[in-house]
Amino acid sequence: MADPVISLVVERTGDLLIQKIVFLKGVRGQVERLQNDLVRMQCFLKDADQRQDEDARIRNWVSEIRAAAYDAEDIIEIFANKIESIKDKGFVTRLAYYPWRIVSLNKIGKEIESLQTRLDNIAVSREKFGIKNLGEGTRTHGEELQRLRRERFNCRAWVCVSSSYDHKKILRSIIKQLNPKDTKDDKLSRMLEKMEEEELEERLYQDLQDKCYLVVLDDVWKEAAWDCLVRNAFPDSSTSSKVLLTSRKRDVAVHADALSIPHELKTLGKEDSWQLFLRKALGHGDNAGCPPDLEEVGREIVRRCDGLPLAITVVGGLLLGKKELKSEWEKVLNSFNRNLSRSQSGVSAILELSYADLPPNLKFCFLYLGLFPEVSVISVPKLIHMWVAEGIMQKRDAENLEETAAYDDVERLCGRNMVQVVKTTVDARIKSCRVHDLLRELAIRKAEDENFFQIHDTRDGKISAKSRYLAVHSLPLDKNYFGTSIPPLRSLLFFNVHRENISLIFKSFRKLRMLDLENVEMGYNLPKEIGEVRLLRYLGLRRTSIGRLPHSFGCLRNLQTLDIRTTYVMKVSNIIWKLESLRHLYAYDMVCDVPLKIEGLSNLQTLLGIRFDDI
C-alpha cells in the first residue's frame, strides 16, 4: 500500500489549511499548490512501494517525498501558531508585531518556494525511474483523471435549454456561472436583468474570449436555439474550448455538428437496473443484497421498468416508504399491472402509481409544483413560503411551525424521487429543487383532472372563469390582460413575463392569497388599490421596478411574506410596521424613514437588506 505516513501528513496539511486559513493570508495560494502537489505525488506511491526492494534509488525517492511532506506541515503549523499567539494581545502590541508579520510572511513564502522546487525535482526524477501512476491516493484514479480534465478549462457552465427556450435567461445563467464570485451579492444579477439581448451576447463573448471554456447546453429541442446561442455569444476559439450539447432529437445534434456522430444514450442493463433499484428501494449502498423472499417480485418490478432510470428511481422511492414485506411489494406490482392494462406506457404507469400512493397533503404539494415552468430551478424557501400562504400546512405539534412542516414535505417528495434535489446548504438542507418534465406533465394532467389550477401561456386564448390557481407563462402580455372577466383567483403567479406597465385591477382580486409579480413591470409606484387585497399572505415583487409602497399597504394585515428585492432602492414609511402577521421580509436595499418598531412585528423570522435614514 502507499506510504501511510505521507497520506496522514497530506491529510493534516489540508486540515491545517482549513483551520488556520485566517492566519495564512498572503501565502494561501502557495500552500494550496503545495498540498495539491503532494496529493498528486501520492498517486505514484503504490508503484514505488512495489519496487522499493529492487531499487535503492526508488527507496530514496519515497523518503524524499516523506521528508518534503513533514517539512510542509512544519512550515505551515509553526507560522500559523505564531500569528495566532498574538491575536488576543492588545492593539498596541499587535501594531508592534505588524512589521514582524510582514517579514515572516516573506520568509514563509521563500520556504514554500524552496519546498516547491524540491517537489518539482522529485517529480522529474519519478519519470527518470519509470514510476507509474497506479491510481492510489486520496483520490481514485478515475477521480484524478476527472480532476485533471476539469482543471483543463478556465471556466465552466451548465444550462438547461428545454423546449420553452428563453434566450436572455440562458445567457444570464451562463454569465453568472462564469462569474461565481460576482453573484454572491446579487449586483451582477441586477445588472444583467437590465441588459438587452445584444448586450448579454457581447458580455458573454467577452467573458469567454481567450479562455479555455467548457459550456454544456443541456436538453436543446430546436435547431434555432442552438444557432441563436452559438452565432453571436461564443467566440471561435483556438484554446481547445468545448461546447457540449444534449438533445432528445438526433436532428438537432447532427445540425450542431454535421462532422461528428452523436453519442446515443442507452437504457440501463439488467444488472445495473437491479442495483439502482436496490439502492432506491432498500436505501442500501452499492452492491447491496436483496432479502431472498423479495428478490423474485423485485426483479419483476425492475423488468417492467425497461431499463429507464426515472421509472426505477420513482418506484424505488415508493417502496422505500413501505415495509420490506413480500405482500407490500406484490401490491405495487399488481397495481402496476392494472395501470399497464389501461394502455399506459411502463414509465407512465409507474409515475401514476407513485402519485396515487402519496398522502393527500403531499399530493397537493406535488401538484403545486406543476405551476412552475419546465426545467425551473425552484427555490425551496420561496416554495415553503408559498405553501404556507396557501394554507395547506398545519403545525405538526405545538412547537412545530408551518415552515418546518413544509420543509419536511419537500424532503418527503425528494425521498420518494418525485422531486430532484438541485442544491443543498452547507448543513445539507435542500436549497433548491426541480421536477423532471415527465413528472411535471403528470402534475399538470392531474391538476386539470381535478380542476386544481390552470397554466396559461399568452398564446392560449381566454382564461377559464373557474380558475382558482393561475400561472401565466412567457411572452409579452397585453396591458389589460384579464379584461373584464376576472376568475375567483386564490393564487396568481407570473413567470418570464415582460411587459411595460401592465395594469392589474387589484380590487377585482380581493380573494387572492398568493401574488407573485416577479419580472413584471408595473412602474415605480405600486398602485394604492393593493390595499384592497386584504387576504393576501404572499407578495413577490422581485426584479420589478417598483420603488415605493403606498400608505394603503398597511391594510395587508394578513401578509406573511414580502419580497421587495426590486431594481430600485425601496422607500417605505411606518406602514411596514403595521403588518403584524409579517414573518419574512426580503429586500436588496430598503430605506425606512422611521426607526424599526420591532415590537409591532412579533412574528418576524426573516429580515434581510434594510437600512434606516433619519429624515
Please give a handful of descriptors for the protein shown.
615 residues, alpha/beta, Rossmann fold, 4 domains, nine-stranded parallel sheet, three-stranded parallel sheet, 20 helices, 12% strand, disordered C terminus, Rx_N, Disease_R_plants, NB-ARC
- Number of continuous helical runs: 20
Distance between the termini: 72 Å
Uncertain residue segments:
134-142, 611-615
**Beta-strand content bin:** 5-15%
Number of domains: 4
Helix content: 40-55%
Mean pLDDT level: 76
Question: Considering the protein shown, what is the CATH homologous superfamily of the largest domain?
Answer: Ribonuclease Inhibitor
What is the name of the CATH topology of the largest domain? Leucine-rich repeat, LRR (right-handed beta-alpha superhelix)
Shape: globular
Can you tell me the CATH architecture of the largest domain?
Answer: Alpha-Beta Horseshoe
CA radius of gyration is 30 Å
CATH classification, class level of the largest domain: Alpha Beta
Largest sheet: 9 strands, parallel
Q: Indicate the structural class.
A: alpha/beta
Number of E-state strands = 15
Domain Disease resistance N-terminal: 5-87
Organism: Coffea canephora
Domain Disease resistance protein winged helix: 371-443
InterPro entries: Apaf_helical (IPR042197), Disease_R_plants (IPR044974), LRR_dom_sf (IPR032675), LRR_R13L4/SHOC2-like (IPR055414), NB-ARC (IPR002182), P-loop_NTPase (IPR027417), RX-like_CC (IPR038005), Rx_N (IPR041118)
